[in-house]
Write a structure and sequence with these properties.
CATH architecture: Alpha-Beta Barrel
Number of domains: 1
Strand order of the largest sheet: 4-11-10-9-8-7-6-5
Number of helices: 17
Structural class: alpha/beta
CATH class: Alpha Beta
Radius of gyration: 21 Å
Bound molecules: flavin mononucleotide
CATH superfamily: Aldolase class I
Number of strands: 12
Oligomer: single chain
Helix content: 25-40%
Strand content: 5-15%
CATH topology: TIM Barrel
């Protein structure tokens, strides 16, 4: 939709990368985007879009804000909770760490491939689950699945997405894609069971249960624009196609009626860890729990049978003023012991990936940047975001003298001290006399 509006930046055809992305450095395929950009430069061509993800976001915002539809898309995509403090904290936390490089380290061949819960990936990067993206682009989820498959990266299908588990089975040939299925804790046990059964039949082997959406977040930007995709006939395809959901919708042809039922059923603030234990018994495959920020909840998730935890605060879209995910990571890694820990929230560069991996994340997930990419230009927008991120990460590793993620460790970082209590001590129990759910950060420089 927006591709015609990019002026002088639109100077070569991005589709020439499709399917032949490996580039000419076969030993280090993640560098392909850099090679591609440099070659364009030699021919006097500048990239279509900025390579830095902050600049890319600014371009997408400027482009989409030119009409009302685009402004509504932005109000949904960029709608953070409250005053946006959690989202800002996610980004800021990366500034507390600097890389300690090794030069002349012989890092000429780098192997970034890892496997998490039986899923191989070209690099420790995954696409976070995102719902409602057909509001931004009619075929958003298909483009995302294809771009992820072309780059060898796994993605997580949100039940709030515009395609069903069965659609994905049809659209992306089995074996080429690497996909996990997400469940929001629905208020209907029948619906939960039905979604699990459908995901299993459609070949999904890993289930992600989201635990940070007891309610939809308080998102002023989205509320002020009434830009909730599910009230506009978008997203929630897994629900809309499910007979248990259909039976609970007053008028399946009325988007507002569907949106109302989705809001009623997709979240449930009465859920407890006991419900996760019951759910675990119904899922035969691997289980990841997304939305963990503390050591205590890590232990709860493991007690319920989780095989992986994802440190996440929903990109700052749920609880405002909570911990940044990077701050939360060390305590979760410590509590998880051998269980893999993933992280999302604020990942915008190869440096961010390096820092999160060095602090113990097995892999990271990215959300908003690729959502903006698909809103701007479908497949090419998503590919642009991910390919740049991968190339930046590969450069960061090479320049730091690191050949593989397994060599990353906190000793690779110079970290400015933060409040140690967040990272090591158990959370105090909140009582009337002890407001234990508030943890104060100490000012910079004080320990
Ligand atoms: C537009 C949008 C929709 C999202 N939808 C979902 C969702 O359906 N399920 C979910 O678990 N997380 C959802 N998330 C959160 C992401 O999965 C992820 O946790 C977050 O985007 C990571 O932070 P980042 O955007 O800074 O990379 C959504 C995020 C965005 C931006």
């Amino acid at each position: 939709m927006a591709s015609e509006q990019n002026g002088p930046h639109r100077s070569w055809d991005p589709t020439d990368r499709r399917g032949s992305w490996a580039g000419d450095d076969q030993r280090n395929p993640l560098r392909a985007q850099h090679t591609h950009l440099m070659e364009g430069g030699r021919r006097g061509k500048v990239p279509f879009w900025p390579t830095g993800l902050d600049e890319f976001q600014a371009l997408v915002e400027a482009t989409l804000s030119q009409d009302e539809r685009g402004r509504n898309v932005l109000a949904y995509l960029c709608g953070t909770a409250g005053a946006g403090r959690t989202a800002a904290a996610n980004r800021r936390a990366f500034h507390d760490h600097a890389i300690i490089p090794d030069v002349l380290a012989g890092a000429d061949i780098r192997d970034h491939q890892i496997t998490v819960l039986g899923t191989p990936m070209a690099a420790p990067l995954m696409l976070a689950p995102i719902g409602g993206l057909d509001m931004a682009h009619p075929s958003a989820d298909v483009h995302i699945a294809e771009a992820a498959a072309d780059l060898g990266l796994p993605w997580i299908l949100s039940p709030a997405a515009s395609v069903t588990p069965e659609d994905i089975q049809q659209l992306v040939p089995q074996g080429r894609d690497r996909r996990w299925f997400e469940l929001l804790f629905s208020a209907s046990d029948q619906l939960n069971t039905s979604l699990l059964t459908r995901a299993e039949k459609a070949g999904f082997e890993v289930l992600v249960v989201n635990v940070d959406t007891a309610l939809p977040g308080w998102r002023p930007r989205t509320l002020d624009a009434a830009a909730w995709p599910f009230d506009r006939g978008c997203g929630a395809a897994a629900y809309r196609s499910d007979p248990h959901f259909q039976a609970l919708v007053e008028d399946p042809d009325d988007p507002a009626s569907v949106g109302r039922a989705f809001a009623r059923l997709s979240t449930d603030s009465s859920r407890t860890w006991h419900d996760l234990t019951l759910l675990r018994r119904r899922w035969p495959g691997r289980l990841a729990v997304k939305g963990i920020l503390t050591a205590r909840d890590t232990r709860n998730a493991l007690d319920c049978g989780a095989d992986c935890v994802i440190v996440s605060n929903h990109g700052g879209r749920q609880l405002d003023g909570t911990l940044s995910t990077l701050e939360a990571l060390p305590a979760v890694v410590h509590a998880a012991r051998d269980v893999p820990v993933l992280l999302d929230g604020g990942i915008r560069s190869g440096l961010d990936m390096f820092i999160a991996l060095a602090l113990g994340a097995k892999a990271v997930l990215v959300g908003l940047p690729y959502a903006l990419g698909v809103a701007l230009d479908g497949y090419d927008g998503v590919h642009h975001v991910l390919a740049n991120l991968l190339a930046d990460y590969d450069h960061t590793m090479a320049l730091a003298g690191v050949c593989s993620p397994s060599q990353l460790h906190p000793s690779r970082l110079h970290s400015r001290p933060r409040s140690p209590s967040l990272l090591t001590t158990p959370w105090p129990t909140a009582t009337r006399d002890n407001p234990g759910l508030i943890q104060s950060r100490q000012p910079r420089g004080e320990t």
